[in-house]
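thread: overnight batch results

M.L. [08:02]
morning all. the overnight job finished for the chain we discussed friday. pasting input first so we're all looking at the same thing
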Amino acid sequence: MDAILLQILNGFDKGSAYALIALGLTLIFGTLGVVNFAHGALFMLGAFCAVAVNKLLSLDIVTLSETQTTAWGTPLEIRTPYAEVWFGEIGSVLVDYSVPLSILVAIPVMLIIGVVMERGLIKHFYKRPHAEQILVTFGLAIVLQEIIKAWFGANPIPQPAPGSLRGMIDFGAAVGFEAGSVVYPLWRLVYFLFAFVIIGAVFAFLQFTTLGMVIRAGMADRETVGLLGIDIDKRFTLVFGIAAVVAGLAGVMYTPILSPDYHLGMDFLVLSFVVVVVGGMGSLSGAVLAGFLLGILQSFASMNEIKQVIPGIDQIIIYLVAVVVLLARPRGLLGRKGVMES
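M.L. [08:03]
and the structure it wrote out:
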């Protein structure tokens, strides 16, 4: 049971990232009808918002020690971040919590990127075939990827979690198992809780706000909403911005789990589209359900006992599940009738 619990926790970890990215993808497709292959790049840009904030807060001043020397007898260089020089202990906290603080930067940055992307490019492809949408957004993703590569380099850039959240938690003891049987990284649990909050906030926004109701109505019948005198285009521009923010925040908080590099977006893009298809094109709840379901299945498939029986199953399990689901339910688990069927 402890092994099963551990794999479920690992599945929630992966599933949280899949669900957040797939949620944004589905939000864009459901409202705008655009198959956005640049969405993985938005996840990557969010991760590099965290990198940029960390680098900014870690800028340091070099002083020479008067008492310590190197092995060669020269004065030892002491590097102190400017944040600590200017703000003292508060500066140390800012440096330590650079990843969570990056959220404050990522929200406006990703919102602006999303709005500019939609107004500058995506809006011209609303009524174009999906194949053209895929080509242009995939090309945009490659451009963004190369910009990040040129600016930050090709190597992964590790991002530390806050010191107080780097430890392990005895999850097994907390739920009644033997102490030490299920020990899990605390930050991964933080990421799952963060994803839960973001997903809940998106659904609450769509369900309980006036703008959310307009968006849901537009997803169901865009033309009728337009005939009512509502400027649906402006609302949908905001939707694209919100989807970009969701993807960006997912990337920010994932950086301590997986060091970001320039092809991070591509690594998650294909898997996230599989999640969307399995959940059902245009279904927000289906995207979230499929994200966690496939994350848990992938986690169990990565167990050594499973891989010894079926080598490489952890690499293909998601695609096998997608084939089975689509054969049984061509619209996906919770797909809506008429979506992608014309």
